[in-house]
Amino acid sequence: MRAIHLFGAGDVRVVDAPDPALRRPTDAVVRVVRSCICGSDLHPFHNAERDEAGHPIGHEFVGVVEEVGSEVATVRPGDFVIAPFVVSCGVCEFCRAGLQTSCVRGGWWGDTEGSGSSGGQGEAVLVPLADGTLVPVPGITADTDERMLASLLTLSDVYGTGWHAALTGGVSQGSTVTVIGDGAVGLLAVLAARQQGAERIVLMGRHATRTDLGRDFGATDVVAARGEEGIEAVRDLTDGGSQVVLECVGMMPAYEQALGVVRPGGTISRVGVPQYTDGPVGRVLFSRNVTLTGGVAPTRAYIDELLPGVLDGSVDPGRVFDTVLPLEQGPEGYAAMDERRALKVMLRP
Ligand SMILES: [Zn+2]
Ligand SMILES: [Zn+2]
């Protein structure tokens, strides 16, 4: 099959890779219908060590089950499925608690040396623990219109991650929320905050086409300024600070921005993968009783709840995909996202 592999910083290529084959009775093989590039894929794209052999990349995909192992009970060949961005067993303590990202048997996509799973950015994927991991969607096929496929694909990561931000941030009816970041997760955090009852949603972002989409998703105000100027603008708009702040970037300046705009007694939820190891967590939080929460989103836990709105068209999270490319042009997709020419790139095998 054809698949995107990462060979080092700035070097992704479409290569011939082995066809996935069942290894355990709990595995499935899924033929990918659509996959995509994540903002978090750009971190290894920037920093990865040189790897002459290359390794698979990609963790967001939807597809059709091709083959299942003898112990797989919840999906059958021919089923359309959503794959969340982590593998999970569905039965351990953490899976039952809705924290599938901490599954004791779970793992990541592209774990060729462990579970044998392949990456999401390919023509097919070996899925370990298929019963726990995959969510079948009746009535959808590979030929369903692309707009619906795009929205279903957001349930793999970005919509569920935005939802996790709003949920752990404690958004409730009438909340005032500030969302930091106009990437796909930030925009879908706006949508999620709106769905969870937020009344005032301030979106901090600099790209007008993205923040316009944020307004469509429910943002009531947009602040393009950053740093002290941005913080002042948000504090003015929110009468001294925002009760809930959703930090959807993962870089230190975004976290500092969150600290600047949060109201005393408020909550900061972070869902961008932190690109820092240390940071201000001492008196700056303590003296103002600020809660720091969020983390890697167990999107598997949210699919059942979010799927009906996608299927009936009441939400259209797939609008975050502004670019669709054939898998063979995957490297161009990485370049486009890296250079901010594309918000989010969907790949068609
Ligand atoms: Zn992702
Ligand atoms: Zn588990």
Explain what you see.
- This protein is α/β, with parallel strands linked by helices and 349 residues long.
- It has two domains: 2-157 and 299-348, Medium-chain alcohol dehydrogenases, catalytic domain (Quinone Oxidoreductase, Chain A, domain 1, Alpha-Beta Complex); 161-294, Rossmann fold (3-Layer(aba) Sandwich).
- Helix content is 29%, strand content 25%.
- The strands form four sheets. Strands 3, 5, 6, 9, 10, 17 and 18 form a seven-stranded mixed β-sheet that branches. A six-stranded parallel β-sheet has the order 13-12-11-14-15-16, sandwiched between helices. The chain has a three-stranded antiparallel β-sheet with strand order 2-1-4.
- Strand 1 (2-8) and strand 2 form a beta hairpin.
- The mean pLDDT is 97.
- One zinc ion binds next to loops.
Give the topology, please.
Layout: E1 2-8, E2 11-16, E3 28-36, H1 42-47, E4 55-56, E5 61-68, E6 80-83, E7 86-87, H2 93-96, E8 107-108, E9 124-127, H3 130-133, E10 135-136, H4 146-154, H5 158-169, E11 176-180, H6 184-195, E12 200-204, H7 208-217, E13 221-223, H8 227-237, E14 242-247, H9 252-261, E15 262-270, H10 283-286, E16 291-294, H11 303-311, E17 323-326, H12 330-338, E18 345-348
Parallel strand pairs: 11-12, 11-14, 12-13, 14-15, 15-16, 17-18
Antiparallel strand pairs: 1-2, 1-4, 3-5, 3-9, 3-18, 5-6, 6-10, 7-8
Helix pairs in contact: 5-6, 6-7, 8-9
This protein binds zinc ion (2 copies).
